[in-house]
């Protein structure tokens, strides 16, 4: 995410290791599209090497909760646990400061 | 980072795009080694594709500040701005909740 937002706002730090990648990339693209349509969405960054890291940014915890409970996202979370993720962590963090160039 | 820590603790979310990667990987390895020796360090995750994301986890803002001011790290930050980063952002965020499998 390039454009700075006014602090405080929230970050969801999602890290994962995949046991299986069949169909994963398609789901990830679809979820990113959907997240961008959610109220309170600010931005998203994603990269995967040994570990995958996706950080999405949100206006507040309410918008994170609504996204967590989005129907298509719930289906993706379920499939993730059953099929794709060897391990995963979700961290909800309040962004207090930011700077950059 | 696999092992969960007791919330709250802090995350430094560093995202960057490189304009030049000469010598970058060596510096990154060196900085990760040094960070791990700092008081208050909890863990680190890193991945790079189009964008590079490094999330490091710390006990508190004081330990983040001490790491930011570490001499070798200051040198690396300076080189980063002069030589490696097309763009970068640093976000300091308080981890309030975490869950995973």
Describe the structure.
- The structure is a homodimer of 101-residue chains.
- Chain A is of the alpha+beta class.
- Chain A has a single domain (9-95), classed as 2-Layer Sandwich (Alpha-Beta Plaits), CATH 3.30.70.
- Helices cover 36% and strands 41% of the residues of chain A.
- Chain A contains three helices and four strands, in the order βαββααβ.
- The first copy, chain A, has a four-stranded antiparallel sheet with strand order 2-3-1-4.
- In chain A, a hairpin with a 3-residue loop joins strand 2 (41-48) and strand 3.
- In chain A, helix 1 (24-37) packs antiparallel against helix 3.
- Chain A is globular.
- The model of chain A has no long low-confidence stretch (mean pLDDT 94).
How many beta-strand elements of chain A? 4
Structural class estimated from helices and strands of chain A: alpha+beta
Pair with the biggest interface: A-B, 33 and 33 residues
Beta strand % of chain A: 35-45%
Shape of chain A: globular
Architecture blueprint of SSEs:
The structure is a homodimer of 101-residue chains.
Chain A: E1 9-18, H1 24-37, E2 41-48, E3 52-58, H2 61-68, H3 71-84, E4 85-100
Antiparallel strand pairs in A: 1-3, 1-4, 2-3
Helix pairs in contact in A: 1-3
What's a concise summary of this model?
The structure is a homodimer of 101-residue chains. Chain A has helices spanning 24-37, 61-68, 71-84, and strands spanning 9-18, 41-48, 52-58, 85-100.
Provide tags for this entry:
homodimer; Alpha-Beta Plaits; globular; 101 residues; 41% strand; alpha+beta
């Amino acid at each position: 995410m390039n454009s700075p937002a006014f602090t405080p706002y929230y970050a969801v730090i999602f890290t994962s290791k995949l046991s299986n990648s069949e169909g994963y990339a398609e789901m990830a693209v679809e979820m990113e599209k959907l997240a961008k349509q959610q109220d309170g969405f600010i931005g998203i960054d994603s990269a995967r090497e040994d570990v995958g890291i996706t950080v999405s940014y949100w206006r507040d915890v309410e918008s994170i909760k609504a996204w967590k409970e989005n129907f298509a996202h719930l289906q993706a979370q379920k499939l993730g646990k059953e099929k794709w993720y060897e391990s995963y962590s979700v961290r909800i963090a309040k962004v207090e400061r930011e700077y950059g160039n």
